[in-house]
């Protein structure tokens, strides 16, 4: 039996934007039960530690994925725009930038810095998911690589919810430990506005538009699977994989 797929038509730039936003409304990781529990104060400190430790790997690899893309970009203007992202995360001197601020969060949660940076305690899925994102951006066409960053369209909302929810619900969380997130509220809209305008201008065929939508779905899957792994390993009893962070022995 043969199956036929209806040919996809060319969307207007605004229809493409609406289709991208619909993917976020359906699949972004704000909808994941682990995030709901994190923000609503339903987790123990050890589970919050596991989230921060695993998410450190995402933060640490973001500037590497951006540098990979930077090297492939064809114009000065594009490289200048993308270089800013690398600086936002790596900083321009020691103790500045997003990675340093994320380590303030893991410090504030009582995790040993050398242990966090060693990556020894990561869940296997965290490593696989983050590495898949870095490879995607290194290997796919530039249009898709840029489109995969578009989850940032949706991040200011989840970050605002997270900061207010965690401050309200956990006595071990302070404004200082959550300092990572404040600059993201201005950086992410700047980043995503540029990426969205780029994608709307350069996705000019139905195939390119479908590839852009698939890139955003892929990225939502990366973020979702990281939370699935945390949920499975640290919410269900007796599921922590061998070698992964064990709250009682390493915190
Ligand atoms: O806290 C979050 O929920 C969240 C989500 C995302 C995202 O949607 O990819 C990013 C970030 N934070 C973030 O802090 C960040 O630096 C970042 C960079 C990127 C990217 O794809 O280039 N996404 C995100």
Could you describe the 3D structure shown?
The protein has 251 residues and is an all-alpha fold. It has a single domain (17-235), classed as Heme Oxygenase, Chain A, CATH 1.20.910.10. It has 12 helices and no strands. The chain has helices at 13-27, 33-39, 45-72, 76-90, 98-108, 113-118, 124-139, 142-147, 155-169, 181-202, 206-234, 247-250. α1 (13-27) packs parallel to α11, α3 (45-72) runs antiparallel to α4 and α7 (124-139) runs antiparallel to α11. The longest helix has 29 residues, at 206-234. The protein is globular and about 55 Å long. The chain binds pyrroloquinoline quinone. Pyrroloquinoline quinone is lined by residues 62, 98, 149, 151-152, 155, 158-159, 184, 223.
Residue-averaged pLDDT: 95
Largest sheet: none
Number of domains: 1
End-to-end C-alpha gap: 57 Å
Tell me the number of helical segments per DSSP (H or I, 4 or more residues long): 12
Strand content: under 5%
**Bound heterogens, unique:** pyrroloquinoline quinone
Report the CATH superfamily.
Heme oxygenase-like
Order of helices and strands: HHHHHHHHHHHH
Number of strands: 0
CATH topology: Heme Oxygenase, Chain A
Oligomer: single chain
Low-confidence stretches: none
Helical proportion, percent range: 55-70%
How does CATH name the architecture? Answer: Up-down Bundle
Query: Would you state the CATH class?
Result: Mainly Alpha
Main structural class: mainly alpha
Task: Provide the gyration radius in Å.
Answer: 19 Å
| Principal-axis shape | globular
């Amino acid at each position: 039996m043969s199956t036929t797929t209806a040919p996809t038509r060319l969307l207007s730039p605004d229809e493409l934007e609406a289709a991208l936003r619909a993917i976020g409304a359906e699949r972004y990781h704000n909808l994941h039960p682990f995030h709901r529990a994190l923000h609503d104060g339903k987790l123990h400190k050890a589970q919050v530690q596991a989230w921060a430790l695993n998410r450190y790997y995402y933060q640490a690899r973001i500037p590497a994925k951006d540098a990979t893309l930077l090297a492939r970009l064809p114009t000065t203007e594009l490289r200048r725009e993308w270089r800013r992202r690398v600086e936002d995360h790596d900083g321009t001197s020691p103790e500045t930038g997003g990675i340093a601020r994320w380590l303030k969060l893991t410090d504030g949660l009582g995790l040993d810095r050398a242990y966090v940076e060693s990556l020894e305690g990561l869940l296997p899925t965290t490593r696989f998911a983050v590495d898949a994102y870095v490879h995607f951006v290194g290997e796919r066409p530039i249009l898709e690589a840029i489109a995969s960053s578009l989850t940032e369209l949706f991040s200011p909302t989840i970050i605002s919810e997270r900061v207010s929810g965690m401050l309200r619900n956990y006595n071990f969380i302070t404004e200082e430990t959550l300092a990572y997130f404040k600059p993201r509220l201005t950086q992410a809209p700047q980043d995503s506005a540029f990426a969205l305008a780029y994608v709307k201008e350069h996705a000019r065929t139905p195939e390119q538009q479908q590839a852009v939508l698939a890139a955003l779905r892929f990225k939502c899957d990366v973020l979702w699977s990281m939370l699935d792994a945390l949920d499975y390993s640290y919410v269900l009893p007796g599921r922590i994989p061998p070698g992964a962070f064990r709250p009682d022995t390493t915190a």
